[in-house]
Amino acid sequence: MNDFIKKMSFTQKIKAAVQVFFAVSLVLFFVKLAYYHYQVVVCPYQLEYREGGILLTTDFMLKGGNPYDLAHQPQYANVYGIFYHWIVYPFVRVFGPTLLVHRAVTAFFIFASCLMIFGVMRREKISRMFVFSAVLLFYFSMIAPNTSTPLAGPHSLGVFLFLGSIFWPFLAQYSLKSLMGSIVLADMAFFTKSYFVLGVPYLASYIFLFVSKRKGVAYAGLFFILLLVSIVTVNFFYPTHFNSTILSHIERAGYVLNHVHRQFSSFIEFYSGILLGFLTVAFLHGVKDWERIKKGLNPSHWKLPKVHVLEFPKPLVDLNLHLMVFCFLCSMLLIYFKLGGHGGSWLAYLYQLITPFLVVVIFLGAKKGKVLNLIWIPFIVMNLYTLTFNAFPVIEMRSKEWEDVRRILASHQNIFNTPAIVSLLLEQKKEVFDSGHTEDFLSGTTRNPLLKKIAIPNRQIVTTYFQYLKNISDAIKVRKYDLIVLTKDWSPMVFKELVENYALIGVIPVKMSHSRQSWDITFWKSKQ
User: Fold this and answer.
1) pLDDT tens figures, 203-229
2) pLDDT at 306
3) Which residue ranges of the chain lie beneath pLDDT 70?
4) How many CA atoms are closer than 13 Å to the CA of 316, on its beta-carbon side?
5) SS3 sequence of 243-273
6) Is the pTM of this model over 0.85?
7) Residue 230 confidence (pLDDT)
8) Helix axis angle, 128-143 to 373-388, nearest 10°
9) How many CB atoms within 10 Å of residue 355?
């Protein structure tokens, strides 16, 4: 070994030392990310206000209930699709409907998505070091603080199905089998979290434009047929599914341009290292291309593409545009002009729909053996350092405040609850009245005549919701609840009857550090 090192030139030694430093850095960054993710998975408390609502749906299914039956609304309302609960169901039957089980399933799909990113990049013959870098950057986006992706919920499964519906045909060169598989995955994605169905319009438009117009139309048409059949079938067994998972999101969707700009500003800041690296390498490549032009060597990628309008089997445009670049551009435009304006989401759309393609596109030029590869290393290390060593909050494995809440709940039976304590109530096998999604049930209405044909009528939704509120109000008037637990200044389902019949006996401040939320939990006992 010593003889081998002695024979190396000074330049080779420097290059080897830099590569060793880079490899060690990547390992350290992975350990930091994985440790934080582990803490999120095993934390015994809710890490987001409505996280417990996901457990309630699964728990109700274990008891033989239908969480999307109108008779059980809005108590068991869930604004996310049923497919995640089908996936997690076998595990909760064995281990129980706990935060740990749900988050562990979530973690599995995060790692599965990381493996898909790895596979696509290796298919492109990108150096392993840069593949690992890209996977780590993507991994961060899946577990980033203030996002719900690593928590109990359908988000990581949706990302997995979304990427699978795109990556499978890409890796299989758009074979018939892969396109049929993509259709099935996208259908599952729709019933997981509806916007993850975007894999189909992305892929269909790409195939139509750059592969084959005939194949693109057939792919989109077959998916549309399957989706219609699936919607009718799911709505038959789960009558309020369409209202809760589609209409409620449409009704509450808004668009605030300033919110879009703030998200993109933060996103660019988070990935500033690799973006600067990309611009630097692109500039150096541009200088080389300019030198070729001056010598009369016009690079082939500067040629104007041919257009095939009437030849149906051919693509519309004869252009060698990479699928990952196309998907990246689609996500950027869609989020900027539509999805990113929703004030209830912070960076989730960017992390889930942009980052998977961004990390691939950024390193497409970093092929094995390229001289410019070494230039990437300081930018990558800088980016991973700023992400992993400055961004993560402390996750408490045992909190005095949360344990005080648990102790108080244990000494009471009939408790009207805030969504912040749902997981604790399920742990103690007590009824849950407000899952957090309960409050959104009223949004599941529509004025669209076409959507009305496949949804529960608006009148039934409104009547069911306000009857439930009346039942709560009547129960408070007769002091039916042993204890009422609310979140200060955020309890839309409890009215003036509370202060007339119950007295405030205490307040406990709790933290949900991953989502950077803090809540004052208030406790109310009936007046004597």
Assistant:
1) 999 999 999 999 999 999 999 999 999
2) 78
3) 1-13, 289-303, 366-372
4) 10
5) HHHHHHHHHHCCCCHHHHHHHHHHHHHHCHH
6) yes
7) 95
8) 20
9) 26
Q: What is the pLDDT of residue 369?
A: 47
- Spacing of C-alpha 214 from chain mean position: 32
Query: Is the previous residue joined to 313 through a cis bond, with omega within 30 degrees of 0?
Result: no
Long-range contacts of 93-100 (CB under 8 A, 24+ apart): 93/62, 97/55, 97/58, 97/59, 97/62, 97/426, 98/55, 98/423, 98/427, 99/43, 99/44, 99/45, 99/46, 99/51, 99/52, 99/55, 99/152, 99/423, 100/41, 100/42, 100/44
Q: Collapse the DSSP code of 433 into the 3-class scheme (helix H, G, I; strand E, B; otherwise coil) and give the result.
A: coil
**125 CB neighbour count, 10 Å cutoff:** 10
Bridge partner list, 485: 523
Long-range Cβ pairs for the range 330-337 (8 Å, 24+): 330/198, 330/201, 330/202, 330/205, 331/198, 331/357, 334/198, 335/260, 336/260, 336/264
| Type of residue at 175 | S
| Amino acid at site 54 | I
Q: Locate 354 and state its tokens.
A: 């942009």
Contact yes or no for 457/240 (Cβ under 8 A): no
How many Cα neighbours within 13 Å face the side chain of 303? 12
- Check the CA dihedral 171-172-175-177 and report its sign: negative
Q: Quote the pLDDT of residue 466.
A: 92
Q: Rounded distance, CA 355 to CA 352, Å?
A: 6
**Cβ within 8 Å of residue 481, ≥6 positions away:** 414, 415, 416, 475, 502, 526
Q: How much is the pLDDT for 448? A: 80
Contact yes or no for 63/442 (Cβ under 8 A):
no
Structure tokens at 93: 């039957």
User: How many CB atoms within 10 Å of residue 179?
Assistant: 22
